[in-house]
């Protein structure tokens, strides 16, 4: 079972995502932004960071990388794809997911341990969780506020495509406390907080994040 | 528009040169002429003036800094000592760690965001230059009073700049300091520390060896950043209006630096460089002269090959430009193709600008004309050395003679009020408003960060080897007694490492002072260096490098002497570290060390406008014994938690412990006010299971560390004798200060 | 050489925390003129020679696919005199 | 109701990492028109009624002290029709 982890110039959490993939029991494969070859991976993670410095808009420039062309093609055929933080931003810019991520409402970069509740356990990335389960994982970004128009929001809600919500005070101004969403097909997931930084209590606030990686293992074994 | 060449310098020896405007003294200018046997060209003048500046030549501090070498303790851990971009220490298992602090004070006052950002960028390049992967940063900061209008301008920008740059590089921020004092108005201190790790065999040095090897410049293009002074020369050479306006501030591009890091590490991994130097202060002047002096001295550079962002730059300006995110490498011709390939992969601009020769001179040409022809050592290392006059300032005796009179809380109501006042004071208050703007998780190896006593990162995922770093300075003590102040800061930083169970190994420092031309300031500086050198010798810790920042003053008023001391320690298994606090009830709390009435220079005295009396005297033998107790307590699994006492004394430390996991404590004190507020050094609170109390007793007896029982953990309040304060109330007091001030 | 300007603003219905922050800072500094503030981006693009209609069409396309995010932003392209 | 626009750009001699990022992204997407790109900020300020000269002077002042950072940026104030 091979999970590709993409590195764009300016990607930061690629090694962490690969570590988490291995902790979940899968093989992590490095993918380079400039290379359209997906090396026969079964799933892909777009990790966090500041690809292209996050200049212009987060994810705006990365979206055009050669590797994205292949990823978009495979995702449209149903390949599981997870975008974390900057990766989520890339997915929105690529229109694989609706909406956009904008400046945090208090305009500061925010790094904190955040409780989120898992609302949709039908995706290949969330199946190990139980519905409504609350988990604690790091949130760290400057532009994590999920915004979209009312119609999009209504369909996200109506189709149960919100996979995770912030619990407690809204940390960044996201509409309806959205922390993560999925596409209509359910294979593409974007998540603002960082499960890859919560795979053990030595380096993270909990090991709750591991669930995303064991989910994908289950999805592939099936 | 005339180019000043070596030929012209010979032909027209009497041309007047603006050496004064460039900050050179007449005798310094005379020495340059003597070295060269002629007048310098304007490019040579540019190089000498910037390399002989206080900032680059350490001319006022050199005679004192020597002590770090002379008094250096024997240390097997030191792999690279003072003199390179950063010192390197052996931390075992084949790993080497390099760390260093640098200041970016003045630029951060002028443009807080960019000043702080480029400060982080600069120190990270220093660490990278040693061949190491940067793994974490820290940021000791000082500001004017928290409610001063200028602090409101400067602080948010500096915090955003440190975070903006460090976060974008993917470097976890694992600690720092935020301290407020009147004297830092107009002189905020932005010190930045970076730590990096490599294998022993990967250490790189700044030397240009091997005739025929290529001089390669890579990274950002060169612009007119930070060349303030030298524009004098440019305008002389070009006539007024000939050159465009030069920016007064440097702007950083963290994305370019991130790419530069990954590109450089790939280049190092393939062993493609002979020597390497980052471009920081004094830019190419510094990099070329230092690299050449590191080798046999011979180097030829074609300056017109340097890729420019601003094509109107003169050769003098190119030599001095402090544009960020650039590196200079020495590469064997057979490896240049691969070197360029890697740069292309990362989209990094790369240019061969010269080669190493078997001569003794650094020769720089501009479109074929020789404009610099100098022995490089005379530029890089043989700058002037000053033995500046120093004298104990008159204030010392006066303030030392003062007795402190501050309210000593007695009744329950007074004790509660005192505690709430202390924990909400800007210097003591929770710094999450600051640290939440820093990524502490990136790289996935952070074991400890704010608010822990020290930052700790894992450097090997299999063996769990790790390093811990703490930085400290108590400027109030340094003001009262700079010799003791430096020793006490060293002791505190070492203790902060040891509470977690890491063994202190090496020291770096950033010495922030007022004007060296003031004999009183110079005395403070000399005393601080003497104190640090003596302290390091006694504790067996080598100084591996550091930085001096002078002229931090407004008018005649200098900042408090602020020697920021960084200590690096090693821990063989980060999983077994001692955490800073407890999360369960029923543990016993003990105080290690003895409490005296040490209110001079304390936060409580500061809060009552008093800065007099005598600082405590450092007892480093005792500190070392305490460290042994802390290390043994960790390895013998005696401790459940350990937290050091410093500013704010026991009151502050116990508050930090109970708020960490919101588990309360009940303690009883004899001399309540002093016990709570005194800042006697050499003390630590530990929490142990009752079953371990006997072992703790034995351990302390073995190392002659006094021990007193404070109480037990549990409940949802902090109970001190008859005074009960709910954790919620304590937390609100502690956490609301920063949001209120800067929110 | 000519300058083409692309102005990119958040759509009116999208929350603009930066604009809001400015709007609430102004009165604190004694400036009372604003009833609302929105903050956006301005790109100044230099092209060689006079911009041709074909070139302007290209800029429009770049504004749409790269310089703005149509999900949340509107843009305007114009030639600056 | 009128709209006052404040354009804030980095001074020409100051490095513009964002503008550079856009400038190097454009050709990768096949857009070759730009010889240089600079990125700045645009503020749209709504005021009640026609802006008076006094009001415009206030806006100038706000642009100088709040909307721009005079150390590295220039600004231009104008009324949008
Ligand atoms: N306070 C100090 N203590 C010890 N070493 C110092 C101190 N200040 C400077 N040094 C050493 O002097 C050398 C030159 O310092 P610096 O100019 O800051 O280095 P760089 O050129 O890399 O910026 C370095 O090796 C540095 O570690
Ligand atoms: Mg250096």
TrEMBL record, chains C, D:
<keyword id="KW-0436">Ligase</keyword>
<dbReference type="InterPro" id="IPR036604">
    <property type="entry name" value="PurS-like_sf"/>
</dbReference>
<dbReference type="GO" id="GO:0005524">
    <property type="term" value="F:ATP binding"/>
</dbReference>
<protein>
    <submittedName>
        <fullName>Unannotated protein</fullName>
    </submittedName>
</protein>
<dbReference type="Pfam" id="PF02700">
    <property type="entry name" value="PurS"/>
</dbReference>
<keyword id="KW-0067">ATP-binding</keyword>
<keyword id="KW-0547">Nucleotide-binding</keyword>
<dbReference type="GO" id="GO:0006164">
    <property type="term" value="P:purine nucleotide biosynthetic process"/>
</dbReference>
<keyword id="KW-0963">Cytoplasm</keyword>
<dbReference type="GO" id="GO:0016874">
    <property type="term" value="F:ligase activity"/>
</dbReference>
<dbReference type="InterPro" id="IPR003850">
    <property type="entry name" value="PurS"/>
</dbReference>
<keyword id="KW-0658">Purine biosynthesis</keyword>
């Amino acid at each position: 079972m091979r999970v590709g982890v993409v590195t764009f110039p300016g990607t930061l959490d690629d090694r962490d995502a690969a570590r988490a993939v291995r902790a979940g029991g899968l093989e992590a494969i490095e993918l380079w932004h400039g290379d359209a070859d997906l090396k026969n991976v079964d799933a892909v993670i777009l990790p966090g960071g500041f690809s292209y410095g996050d200049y212009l808009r987060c994810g705006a420039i990365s979206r055009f990388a050669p590797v994205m062309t292949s990823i978009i093609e495979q995702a449209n055929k149903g390949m599981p794809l997870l975008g974390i933080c900057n990766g989520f931003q890339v997915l929105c810019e690529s229109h694989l997911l609706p909406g956009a991520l904008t400046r945090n409402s208090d305009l500061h970069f925010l790094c904190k341990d955040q409780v989120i509740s898992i609302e949709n356990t039908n995706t290949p990335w969330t199946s190990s969780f139980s519905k409504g389960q609350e988990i604690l994982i790091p949130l760290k970004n400057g532009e994590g506020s999920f915004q979209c128009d009312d119609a999009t929001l209504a369909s996200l809600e109506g189709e149960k495509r919100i996979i995770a919500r912030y619990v407690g005070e809204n940390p960044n101004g996201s509409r309806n406390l959205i922390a993560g969403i999925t596409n209509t097909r359910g294979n593409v997931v974007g998540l603002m907080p960082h499960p890859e930084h919560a795979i053990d209590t030595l380096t993270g606030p909990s090991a709750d994040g591991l669930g995303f990686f064991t989910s994908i293992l289950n999805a592939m074994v099936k | 528009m005339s180019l000043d060449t070596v030929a012209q310098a010979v032909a027209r020896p009497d041309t007047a040169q603006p050496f004064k405007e460039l900050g050179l003294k007449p005798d310094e200018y005379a020495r340059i002429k003597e070295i060269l046997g002629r007048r310098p060209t304007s490019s040579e003048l540019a190089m000498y003036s910037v390399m002989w500046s206080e900032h680059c030549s350490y001319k006022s501090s050199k005679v004192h800094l020597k002590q770090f070498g002379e008094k250096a303790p024997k240390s097997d851990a030191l792999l690279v000592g003072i003199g390179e971009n950063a010192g390197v220490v052996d931390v075992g298992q084949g790993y080497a760690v390099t760390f260093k602090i640098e200041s970016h004070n003045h630029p951060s006052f002028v443009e807080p965001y960019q000043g702080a950002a480029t400060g982080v960028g600069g120190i990270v390049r220093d660490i990278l230059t040693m061949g190491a992967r940067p793994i974490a940063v820290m940021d000791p900061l000082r500001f004017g009073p928290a409610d001063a209008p200028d602090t409101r301008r400067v602080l948010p920008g500096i915090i955003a700049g440190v975070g903006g740059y460090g976060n974008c590089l993917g470097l976890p921020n694992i600690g720092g300091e935020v301290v407020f004092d009147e004297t830092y108005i107009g002189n905020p201190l932005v010190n930045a520390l970076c730590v990096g790790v490599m294998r022993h065999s990967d250490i790189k040095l700044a030397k240009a060896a091997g005739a025929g090897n290529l001089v390669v410049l890579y990274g950002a293009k060169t612009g007119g950043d930070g060349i303030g002074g030298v524009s004098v020369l440019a305008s002389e050479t070009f006539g007024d209006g000939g050159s465009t306006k030069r920016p007064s501030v440097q702007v950083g591009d963290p994305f370019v630096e991130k790419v530069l890091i990954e590109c450089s590490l790939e280049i190092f991994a393939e062993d493609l460089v002979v020597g390497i130097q980052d471009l920081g202060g004094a830019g190419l002047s510094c990099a070329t002269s230092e690299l050449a002096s590191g080798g046999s001295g011979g180097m030829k550079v074609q300056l017109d090959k340097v890729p420019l962002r601003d094509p109107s730059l003169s050769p003098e300006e190119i030599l001095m430009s402090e544009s960020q995110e650039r590196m200079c490498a020495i590469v064997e011709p057979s490896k240049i193709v691969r070197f360029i390939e890697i740069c292309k992969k990362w989209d990094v601009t790369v240019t061969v600008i010269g080669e190493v020769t078997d001569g003794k001179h650094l020769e720089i040409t501009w479109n074929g004309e020789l404009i610099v022809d100098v022995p490089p050592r005379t530029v890089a290392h043989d700058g002037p050395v000053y033995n500046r006059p120093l004298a104990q300032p008159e204030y010392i005796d006066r303030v030392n003679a003062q007795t402190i009179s501050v309210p000593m809380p007695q009744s329950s109501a007074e004790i509660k009020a005192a505690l709430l006042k202390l924990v909400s004071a800007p210097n003591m208050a929770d710094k999450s408003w600051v640290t939440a703007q820093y990524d502490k998780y990136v790289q996935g190896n952070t074991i400890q960060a704010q608010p822990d006593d020290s930052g700790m990162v894992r450097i090997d995922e299999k063996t769990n080897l790790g390093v811990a770093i703490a930085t400290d300075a108590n400027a109030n003590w340094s003001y009262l007694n700079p010799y003791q102040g430096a020793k006490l800061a060293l002791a505190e930083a070492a203790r902060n490492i040891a509470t977690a169970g890491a063994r202190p190994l090496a020291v770096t420092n950033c010495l922030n002072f007022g004007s060296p031309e003031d004999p009183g300031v110079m005395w403070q500086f000399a005393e601080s260096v003497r104190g640090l050198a003596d302290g390091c010798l006694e504790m067996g810790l080598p100084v591996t490098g550091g930085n001096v920042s002078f002229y931090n003053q407004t008018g005649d008023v200098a900042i408090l002497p602020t020697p920021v001391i960084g200590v690096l320690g090693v821990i063989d298994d980060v999983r077994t570290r001692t955490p800073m606090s407890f999360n369960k009830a029923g543990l016993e709390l003990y105080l290690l060390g003895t409490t005296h009435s040490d209110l001079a220079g304390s936060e409580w005295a500061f809060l009552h406008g008093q800065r007099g009396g005598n600082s405590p005297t450092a007892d480093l033998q005792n500190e070392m014994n305490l460290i042994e107790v802390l290390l043994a307590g960790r390895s013998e699994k005696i401790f459940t938690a350990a937290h050091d006492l410093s500013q704010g004394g026991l009151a502050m430390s116990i508050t930090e412990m109970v708020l960490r996991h919101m588990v309360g404590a009940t303690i009883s004190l004899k001399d309540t006010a002093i016990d709570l507020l005194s800042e006697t050094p050499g003390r630590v609170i530990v929490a142990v299971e009752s079953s371990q109390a006997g072992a703790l007793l034995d351990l302390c007896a073995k190392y002659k560390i006094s021990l007193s029982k404070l109480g037990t953990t549990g409940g949802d309040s902090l109970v001190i004798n008859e005074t009960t304060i709910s954790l919620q109330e304590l937390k609100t007091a502690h956490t609301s200060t920063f949001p209120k001030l800067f929110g | 050489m000519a300058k083409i300007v692309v102005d990119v603003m958040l759509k009116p219905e999208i929350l603009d925390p930066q604009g809001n922050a400015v709007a609430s800072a102004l009165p604190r500094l004694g400036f009372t003129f604003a009833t609302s503030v929105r903050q956006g981006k301005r790109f100044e693009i230099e092209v060689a020679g006079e911009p041709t209609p074909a070139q302007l069409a290209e800029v429009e396309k770049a504004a749409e696919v790269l310089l703005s995010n149509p999900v949340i932003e509107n843009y305007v392209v114009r030639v600056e005199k």
